[in-house]
Write a structure and sequence with these properties.
By secondary structure, the chain is an alpha+beta fold. It has a domain of about 150 residues: FAD/NAD(P)-binding domain (3-Layer(bba) Sandwich). Strands 5, 6, 7, 13, 14, 15, 16, 17 and 18 form a nine-stranded mixed β-sheet that branches. A hairpin with a 2-residue loop joins strand 19 and strand 20. Helix 1 runs parallel beside helix 5.
Length: about 400
């Protein structure tokens, strides 16, 4: 399929967020010409297709943040979409486990946030109650979220792409955008197939979102600095130890949820992820924020390196809340890359960020729970695009 020479709307990136944005705007404006441009040979080839597949309920996110609002809304809409398309999914539930008394205050904070965010069914469990949910799990207390689930987000992305066909919106793969030029009446996107002139553009480019925003005239801050996450798989004969999802109480100063056990929709059980900086080149390494985050979190970095190189150390992290697990219970799994925005001052940006340049919007930070929140993020961006159109 070829990219159009002209269109009303170009969406850059065919991950779940980009596809959902195209679907949202095509639904709102049936006569609008649109196209999705994707640099990879297939859709959902990066973050969307390489993750733990968790439909988050909205517990971890500060009340009032975009993540808090859009995750709760997005999860509800995502379950509805899965039902409509017959996509396999399961509300398997999640335990966030306090392994000792020192973690109870943070667990209490998460319960308060979850309730303020209107997370359905959230409840506090004591040590004995949590074993009723996960018999092999140990801890002093846990939060149980029955509305947390699992799905194959790649399958969700493919379903949304099928909906785009009904709106005559092409998804053009192998069409990486490499330059952006603003015009008085829109933008010109230079890409692998030539050029596309669009009245409006929305950039949902994940790992390339910062470079394209700067090319379109946006600021350099924040910069995407990728983190690589490695997962191990639990051997089939040991999968009965895990019924659903088991997470530790996360470090509140980091936008990562810690090493957790996840039952996937295909029956696999994974342990992970690690979180290792995976710079794209010298520019990422020399970014002031990278240097500052390395100085601040070097101890955490050493722990992540140990987990990455030692299956025994990685398994020990899981055994802290499922003591029966042994290093030999795990085999090599899969890896993914998280596009994490990093500010110049070394702050790991936690919330979603959508910024604006002339005739364009840019999703500058959309890490987890962006897949869960995709349909709600698309509605937010649709409103913003419509306000651009109305000027």
């Amino acid at each position: 399929m070829s990219a159009p020479a002209e269109c009303d709307l170009a969406v850059v990136g065919a991950g779940i967020v980009g596809l959902a944005v195209a679907r949202e705007l095509a639904s709102r404006h049936p006569g609008m010409s649109a196209a999705v441009l994707e640099r990879r040979a297939t859709i959902a080839a990066e973050q969307t297709g390489n993750n733990s597949g968790v439909i988050h309920a909205g517990i971890y996110y500060a009340p009032g943040s975009l993540k808090a609002r859009l995750c709760v809304e997005g999860a509800r809409e995502l379950y509805e979409l899965c039902e409509r398309h017959g996509i396999a999914h399961e509300r398997c539930g999640k335990l966030i486990v306090a392994r000792n008394a020192s973690e109870l205050p943070r667990l209490d904070d998460l319960q308060r946030w979850g309730r303020e965010n209107a997370v359905p069914g959230l409840r506090w469990l004591g040590a004995e109650e949590l074993r009723e949910v996960e018999p092999h799990c140990r801890g002093v207390a846990a939060l149980h979220s029955p509305n947390t689930g699992v799905v194959d987000f790649g399958a969700v992305a493919r379903a949304i792409a099928c909906e785009l066909k009904t709106h005559d919106v092409p998804v053009v793969t192998s069409c990486g955008v490499n330059a952006v030029r603003a015009r008085s009446d829109g933008v010109t996107l230079a890409h692998a197939q030539g050029e596309t002139r669009a009245r409006r553009a929305v950039f949902c480019a994940g790992l390339g979102s910062d470079h394209l925003a700067v090319a379109a005239g946006g600021p350099r801050d924040p910069r995407i600095v990728p983190f690589r996450g490695e997962y191990l798989h639990l051997r089939p004969e040991r999968r009965e130890l895990i019924r659903g999802l088991i997470y530790p109480v996360p470090d509140p100063t980091l936008p990562f949820l810690g090493v957790h056990l996840s039952r996937h929709i295909d029956g696999e059980v994974s342990l992970g992820p690690t979180a290792l900086l995976a710079p794209r080149g010298p520019g990422d390494l020399l970014w002031p924020g990278t240097l500052r985050v390395a100085r601040q979190w070097w101890r955490t970095g050493l722990t992540e390196i140990r987990h990455a190189v030692s299956r025994r150390a990685f398994a020990r992290a899981a055994a802290e809340y499922v003591p029966e697990l042994e290093p030999d219970d795990f085999v090599r799994g899969f890896a993914g890359v998280r596009a994490q925005a990093l500010a110049r001052d070394g702050r790991l940006v936690d919330d979603f960020i959508v910024s604006e340049t002339e005739h364009a919007l840019h999703v500058r930070n959309a890490p987890s729970p962006a897949a869960t929140s995709a349909l709600a993020i698309a509605r937010l961006i649709g409103d913003r695009v419509d306000s651009l159109t109305g000027r």
